[in-house]
């Protein structure tokens, strides 16, 4: 039985989720969506999964493009798991619509609450020591249900979120792909190229031993949080300044932006493009 899970992950929450599901269902191949969909088809797969974070009340653009291009077996068991912090918006509906166009549909959809990782906008929250064990608890259920091929109807966008989507998301969608305009390196950059290799959108090229961001950026923060010398710096995009102030005030977060990534996902995990994960003994 062929099992494939496609994922997108910047700070490791979604890759950790992917690995856990793959381990539980056993023998699953895991493939990042930065691969060319035509090279990694799911035409003969019996189980197909999509795991990604929620970005701007939706799925990251590269995930939509990937699913659009992907050939799938319409009779497969298809699941989707998102990682997020507070608002899921239309993430599941977006993928369901793309699957429907291929004559398939989602059999299972659930979301996992994680540490919010958007350090270019605000400090990580809620605290890791609360969220990591909570994430494990949520994952236990999700892994069990998927391994039993359960059906679970996916969460829909609430009417309030739907009404407010354009107004609230407009400023962020306007800078989609250009989050990297404020990225730069300081003199701690050794030119190791890890930022280039972890980037889930292949947006970074190394020039004269320094990263160059090519404006295909979804603001995932991988280059920032996985830089071994903390040399990657950023200016907060204007669209985020207000959000940053509101969130910091409301949640009494410190000004300082800690560089969060999932503690068990290392840079090398994000660099590999295809991997098969055996079941847990
Ligand atoms: C650019 C960006 C946009 C985000 N937008 C949302 C959102 O709309 N709703 C939400 O609940 N969380 C949002 N988040 C939080 C992420 O969904 C969450 O931290 C996720 O677990 C990150 O996954 P990763 O570690 O696999 O990259 C956003 C994070 C980023 C970086």
Shape: globular
User: How many β strands by DSSP?
Assistant: 10
Distance between the termini: 19 Å
Can you list the ligands bound to this structure? flavin mononucleotide
- The poorly predicted ranges are none
Q: What is the N-to-C order of secondary-structure elements (H for helix, E for strand)?
A: EHEEHEHEHHEHEEHEHHE
Strand content: 15-25%
User: What's the number of structural domains?
Assistant: 2
CATH architecture of the largest domain: 3-Layer(aba) Sandwich
CATH class of the largest domain: Alpha Beta
What is the CATH superfamily classification of the largest domain? Flavodoxin domain
Mean pLDDT: 93
What's the helical proportion of residues?
25-40%
* Biggest sheet, spatial arrangement of strands: 5-4-3-1-2-10
Secondary structure elements and pairings:
Elements lengths: L2 E5 L5 H13 L2 E5 L14 E7 L7 H9 L7 E8 L6 H10 L7 E6 L14 H20 L11 H15 L9 E3 L8 H5 L5 E4 L2 E4 L8 H4 L6 E3 L3 H14 L15 H5 L3 E3 L4
Parallel strand pairs: 1-2, 1-3, 3-4, 4-5
Antiparallel strand pairs: 2-10, 6-9, 7-8
Helix pairs in contact: 1-4
Flavin mononucleotide (FMN) binds next to helix 1 and strand 4.
